[in-house]
Design brief:
By secondary structure, the chain is of the alpha/beta class. It has helices spanning 3-10, 50-67, 113-125, 143-146, 189-201, 221-229, 243-258, 288-296, 308-315, 329-345; strands at residues 28-34, 37-45, 73-80, 98-105, 131-135, 165-167, 170-174, 208-214, 234-239, 263-268, 273-274, 280-281, 300-303. Strands 6-7-5-8-4-9-10-13 form an eight-stranded mixed β-sheet, with helices on both faces. The protein is elongated, with a radius of gyration of 21 Å.
């Protein structure tokens, strides 16, 4: 039995309560075959003693028959208390009433970051959380269309704060609400930074469990303004499997690391296409996000399949996550990613 065989066997061990395995979650810190014995080290952050116990039993149930002797299987599980990420970024302050602020970013455009942000926010909301979604892409705002409220305009309250638009259980703010359909945003850095600060500080968000920030692509002024304005609890990086996307995703990871914002995990969008007969085709390559997660020691929160219905529903203002997980594998993937994110930051 080789180390590759051992890795493949461990990929069949599911995290309790999820359809995801412990390899893709990034919980397996090391594994090796040594003198005919399997040595596996697993690290989990949980306060539930049943989870490490279940993982220990499941690993043995899969590995013991392969090695023929339980004594040859050594499983070590490092159980840690969930870390608090409340003091994440430097220089920022909290938003009154908002418990958690999570940024969704990418190093490049075209990876489906706004699609992921919108569906992730909906999936979090359907977990019973009060969720807000701020579209920070001033030059290409797409959240209003994706949530079906592109013809709405916000009003101000008696304190001259912007009242966010509400749709599908979310509170929304976007530059798209302030523009007509074809009007471009022509502003330079300082004014763009001022708009970003106003959306964060002068919007009547109310009581929220999570505020999701849909960042523009790249690593520019707006991203730096965000981390200097508010304290982020962490960032989720969206990428696609191919190496050209991973190169830019690494730049985003590096940027957040330099400003002391923890990376909560990666989401691999357009991960695969599944035919009606069940066969999967990895159109943009395979395993890129998983390898990157292993390198930087963060979980892979989800693999979102490529389904034509995702684009159609976003164009129609009804994101795929509104469907039940049994109706769509993409919806199921978004709901799994939302639950993994909750577990990681709670």
């Amino acid at each position: 039995m080789t180390s590759d065989d051992l890795r493949n066997a461990l990929s069949k061990v599911k995290y309790p309560g999820f359809s995801r395995d412990i390899i893709s979650f990034g919980l397996v810190k090391s594994f090796e075959m040594k003198e005919g014995s399997a040595h596996v080290q697993i690290q989990v952050q949980t306060k539930d003693p049943k989870i490490p116990q279940k993982l220990f039993q499941d690993c043995h149930s899969i590995l013991d028959p392969l090695l023929g002797d339980p004594a040859k299987v050594k499983i070590e599980i490092d159980v840690q208390n969930p870390a608090s990420t409340g003091e994440a970024s430097t220089g920022g302050t909290s938003i009154p009433g908002v418990k958690r602020i999570i940024a969704v970013g990418s190093g490049k455009g075209g990876v489906g970051k706004s699609t992921v942000s919108s569906n992730l926010a909906i999936a979090l909301s359907q977990q019973g959380l009060k969720v807000g979604l701020l579209d920070c892409d001033l030059y290409g705002p797409s959240v209003p269309l994706m949530l079906g409220v592109n013809n709405h305009q916000p009003h101000a309250d008696d304190q001259d704060r912007i009242i966010p638009i509400e749709a599908h259980g979310l509170k929304l703010m976007s530059m798209g609400f302030l523009l007509s359909d074809n009007s471009p945003v022509i502003v330079r850095g300082p004014l763009a930074n001022r708009y970003t600060q106003q959306f964060l500080q002068q919007v009547a968000w109310g009581e929220l469990d999570v505020l999701v920030l849909d960042l523009p692509p790249g690593t520019g002024d707006i991203q730096l303004t965000l981390v200097q304005t508010v304290s982020l609890d962490g960032a989720v990086i969206v990428t696609t499997p191919q190496e050209v996307a991973m190169i830019d995703a690494r730049k985003a990871v590096s940027m957040f690391a330099k400003v002391n914002v923890p990376i909560l995990g990666l989401i691999e969008n357009m991960s695969y296409f599944e035919c009606d007969h069940g066969e999967r085709y990895h159109l943009f390559g395979q395993g890129g996000a998983e390898r990157e997660c292993e390198r930087i020691k963060v979980p892979l929160l989800g693999r979102i399949p490529l389904e034509p219905i995702i684009g159609k529903r976003c164009d129609g203002g009804e994101p795929i996550a509104l469907l039940s997980p049994s109706e769509s594998k993409a919806s199921a993937a978004f709901h799994d990613a939302a639950q993994a994110l909750i577990d990681h930051v709670s």
